[in-house]
User: Which sequence fits this backbone?
């Protein structure tokens, strides 16, 4: 089914929402050549707009509709109360340049969330300014660079990145002006220690580790890796995308991590919104705290109580965005942590890991599991069926017909036909069993009627789209190709 | 409170299926000496307790429903029609991920396509991406794209002092890992942003990647850019124009001025202020440069039955494909804010946005004239302005603001003394559709009292 575009729905002369009428004398307008001529935006009634976007919404899959085991993305339930929290007028209708005494509530919330994230990671200090995970990565790598320069170690410019890493890791490293050196994984999915040793020299700036990694595996010698990097004068960056597996189980600082970003829109339940806004706070050891992006919130307590203010860290890398971060997202994360407390957060990680291991135990009897050991919050299987020509893509698309969002596929790059499955802790055994049942049936379909999979989905709003043609002749606005 | 659904019975059954005696066994790979640390966090709250505590914090803030606000400076108190919140609050939009699976993400994809289309209509540019984090980061990404569009050889950037100070700081943060020379904004010369244009253009040479201008400038002035793009492009450099989306309801577009890249903050298009974020950064450029653009793009496609649909496209520019060779590291962007902008622009339409831009223009001029007439105050903006204007005050701006807040409960202007000591007595005021004439009158009366 196809929904017309706003422009197709537009009717000349139709009016929608009207701003207040002019209540002051009209001033002289700027000279004509500073003004625009036509303003070709659509003309619609408010009801036209509502029906259009409601109909569009109905073409989406979403967590609130069904299972969403998208590996690496932690598509857990987004608590509704957190939406109410972020919408409170005293938190939503606040200007970033208001006098500090008129935003003490905002600053308190920022300060407390900095403390909570530092406690959860075991690291010393946090900046909540980065807007997303990749943004936090850029900030983190710039912090490492600034630290090395301050230590007169500015020649260190090699960043080691395992071959299982998210693509943002090398991209962020390159933006920060460092060289990327890829590290292979060993046969058990760990960092290859021999390969690591070859780069432990005075050019080493650091390593970016995701632990558990994108195979869903906790590195069996993570302390050995971080120890060797430290011994060579490097720093250890932790990609917090997979923190959902280890909250309250282990503090990353205790494993030797120096700097991390966290994805509040993954681990801390803020909604993904169809691709953001997220938030990617960066958390660091005391030694790196002077380099944090800012401003950050500070507290001064006296007899009269606590006062909060914004401060710029002493040797800051600078601002990474305007103002203080995605405050509206921070409110939701604060609410989530306060709702669950320490025991609740640990339970989150334990049940996320139990759910993944439960599914892994069932699925590995159907599809090849390249790294067969207990997983953390996710696992990766090969989307192949011996005796059939179906691929991971076909299995993924067929899952849509069973009302399930497909797992991440073809990532990590080191597993052929990868299907990366992350159930999250908020799914019940009943949901997991239904998914497993779908995977059983799809396996049988692959043998009996592979065309059914090649042509899937059959019951989604659209059939497979021709992405190659779309890229060859891009139509990026409703004015193109007309 | 918990969002974990497992019953004790289910947990036991699942452990049995996995073949371990307890949940702790799943974590045996974690070094034992650091396993299960104490987490020092406050005790959990019930939903009612949580909201009570948050209300207490919210009430420790002055919210703009109660406090008249005359500060803008890159974040604007705007009216958000109810329809925006109702649409973006729908679960199907709110709780979806990035639309990597087009067959079941057409809602998000078409909405972004419509957002891209309307940003192009608004800016007069040919293509728009699906958003950056905010105006500051889209400006930084524009500079990086200009560098790449000049084959990566040009490392000089001319940055106008009229660009938002925080945007300029973010450009410097983004570029600190590379050898860039950033010039042009070392001082705030008198005479205003229009008078500075010639000096900035003289800095543009054959090593320059781009000139970055903002209009309306940070201090509110509308720039006359006649001939500017030609002079920049004659050197093979790009013109990056930072602009305000509401002003484009009446002002000549970046496209019509010949800009190569148009960027800005789109928070005014339907996002609440939320203490400065999340908003969104829009980014638009020429079709010819689209393969150098950062960020996600949605394009039209057809499905196997020939039905029209939409997909994420040209993704070979992006980090998940190109890794360290990508045009940017951006992954998550501002999907929901872009949706809000699409709903907002559709709901206002061309008539609504035109009327809105004229309303704020006339109100700002009314307020400026009233303040200019006060003893001790003088309008210091030079040339036409849109919704913000500079006022020379009879006392330090910080002191005026403090008295406005303490004695009148009014949030005053942006203290331009933060930029340069020469402007210690200058305030940058902003007037929007949220400041009816009664609030303007109250501000004028308060300023008069503060001065006496």
Assistant:
């Amino acid at each position: 089914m196809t929904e017309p575009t706003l422009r197709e729905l537009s009717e000349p002369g139709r009016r929608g929402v009207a701003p207040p009428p002019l209540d002051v004398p009209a001033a002289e307008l700027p000279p004509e050549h500073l003004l625009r001529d036509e303003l070709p935006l659509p003309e619609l009634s408010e009801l036209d707009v509502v029906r259009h976007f409601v109909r569009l919404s109905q073409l989406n899959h979403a967590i609130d509709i069904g299972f969403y085991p998208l590996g690496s993305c932690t598509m857990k339930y987004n608590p509704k109360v957190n939406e109410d929290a972020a919408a409170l007028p005293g938190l939503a209708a606040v200007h970033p340049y208001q006098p500090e005494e008129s935003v003490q509530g905002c600053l308190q919330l920022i300060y407390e969330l900095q403390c909570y994230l530092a406690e959860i990671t075991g690291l010393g200090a946090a900046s909540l300014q980065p807007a997303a995970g990749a943004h936090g990565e850029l900030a983190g790598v710039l912090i490492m660079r600034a630290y090395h320069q301050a230590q007169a170690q500015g020649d260190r410019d090699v960043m080691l990145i395992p071959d299982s890493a998210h693509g943002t890791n090398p991209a962020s490293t390159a933006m920060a002006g460092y060289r990327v050196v890829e590290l292979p994984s060993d046969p058990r999915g760990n960092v290859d220690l021999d390969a690591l040793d070859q780069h432990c020299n005075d050019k080493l700036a650091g390593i970016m580790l995701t632990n558990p990694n994108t195979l869903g595996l906790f590195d069996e010698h993570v302390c050995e890796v971080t120890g060797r990097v430290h011994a060579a004068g490097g720093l250890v960056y932790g990609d917090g995308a997979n923190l959902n597996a280890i909250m309250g189980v282990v503090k990353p600082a205790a494993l030797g991590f120096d700097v991390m970003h966290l994805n509040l829109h993954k681990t801390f339940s803020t909604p993904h919104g169809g691709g953001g806004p997220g938030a990617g706070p960066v958390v660091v050891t005391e030694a790196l705290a002077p380099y944090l992006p800012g401003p950050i919130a500070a507290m001064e307590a006296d007899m009269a109580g606590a006062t909060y203010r914004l401060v710029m860290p002493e040797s800051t890398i600078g601002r990474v965005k305007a103002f203080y971060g995605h405050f509206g997202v921070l409110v939701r994360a604060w609410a989530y942590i306060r709702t669950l407390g320490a025991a609740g957060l640990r339970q989150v990680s334990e049940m996320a890991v139990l759910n993944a291991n439960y599914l892994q135990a069932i699925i590995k009897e159907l599809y090849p599991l390249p790294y067969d050991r207990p997983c953390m919050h996710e696992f990766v299987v090969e989307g192949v069926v011996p005796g059939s020509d179906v691929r991971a893509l076909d299995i993924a698309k067929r899952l849509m017909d069973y009302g399930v969002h497909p797992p991440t596929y073809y990532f990590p790059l080191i597993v052929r036909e990868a299907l990366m499955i992350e159930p999250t802790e908020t799914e019940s055994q009943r949901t997991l069993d239904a998914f497993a049942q779908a995977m059983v049936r799809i396996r049988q379909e692959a043998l009996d009627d592979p065309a059914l999979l090649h042509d899937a989905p059959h019951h989604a709003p659209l059939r497979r789209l021709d992405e190659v043609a779309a890229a060859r002749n891009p139509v990026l606005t409703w004015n193109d190709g007309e | 409170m918990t969002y974990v659904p497992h019953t004790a019975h289910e947990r036991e059954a699942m452990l049995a299926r996995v073949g371990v005696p307890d949940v702790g066994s799943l974590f045996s790979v974690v070094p034992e000496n650091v396993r299960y640390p104490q987490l020092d966090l406050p005790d959990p709250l019930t939903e009612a307790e949580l909201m009570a505590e948050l209300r207490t914090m919210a009430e420790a803030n002055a919210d703009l429903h109660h406090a008249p606000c005359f500060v803008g400076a890159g974040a604007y108190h705007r009216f958000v029609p109810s329809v925006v919140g109702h649409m973006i609050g729908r679960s199907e939009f709110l709780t979806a991920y990035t639309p990597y699976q087009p067959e079941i993400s057409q809602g998000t994809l078409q909405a972004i396509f419509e957002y891209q289309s309307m940003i192009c209509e608004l800016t007069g540019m040919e293509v728009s991406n699906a958003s950056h984090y905010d105006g500051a980061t889209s400006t930084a990404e524009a500079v990086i794209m200009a560098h790449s569009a000049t084959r990566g050889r040009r490392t000089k950037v001319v940055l106008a002092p009229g660009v938002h100070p925080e945007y300029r700081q973010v450009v410097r943060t983004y570029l600190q890992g590379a050898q860039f020379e950033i010039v042009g904004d070392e001082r705030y010369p008198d005479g205003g942003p229009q008078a500075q244009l010639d000096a900035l253009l003289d800095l543009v040479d054959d090593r320059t990647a781009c000139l970055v201008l903002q209009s309306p400038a940070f201090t509110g002035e509308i720039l006359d850019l006649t001939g500017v793009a030609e002079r920049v492009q004659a050197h093979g450099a790009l013109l990056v124009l930072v602009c305000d989306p509401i002003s484009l309801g009446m002002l000549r577009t970046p496209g019509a001025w010949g800009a190569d890249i148009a960027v800005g903050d789109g928070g005014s298009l339907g996002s609440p202020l939320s203490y400065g974020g999340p908003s969104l950064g829009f980014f638009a450029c020429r079709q010819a440069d689209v393969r150098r653009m950062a960020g996600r793009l949605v394009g039209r496609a057809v499905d196997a039955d020939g039905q029209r649909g939409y997909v994420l496209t040209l993704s070979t520019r992006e980090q998940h494909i190109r890794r360290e060779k990508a045009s940017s590291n951006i992954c998550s962007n501002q999907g929901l804010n872009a949706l809000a902008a699409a709903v907002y622009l559709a709901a206002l339409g061309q008539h609504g946005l035109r009327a809105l831009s004229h309303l704020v223009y006339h109100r700002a001029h009314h307020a400026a004239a009233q303040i200019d007439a006060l003893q001790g105050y003088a309008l210091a903006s030079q040339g036409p302005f849109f919704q913000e204007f500079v006022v020379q005050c009879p006392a330090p701006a910080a002191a005026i603001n403090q008295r406005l807040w303490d004695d009148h409960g009014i949030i005053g202007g942006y203290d331009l003394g933060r930029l340069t000591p020469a402007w210690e007595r200058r305030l940058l005021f902003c007037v929007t559709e949220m400041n009816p004439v009664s609030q303007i009158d109250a501000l004028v009366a308060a300023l008069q009292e503060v001065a006496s």
About this structure: The domain at 346-467 of chain A is CATH 3.90.1150.10 (Aspartate Aminotransferase, domain 1). The longest strand of chain A covers residues 296-302. Residues 67 and 404 of chain A are 5 Å apart (CA to CA). The mean pLDDT of chain A is 97.
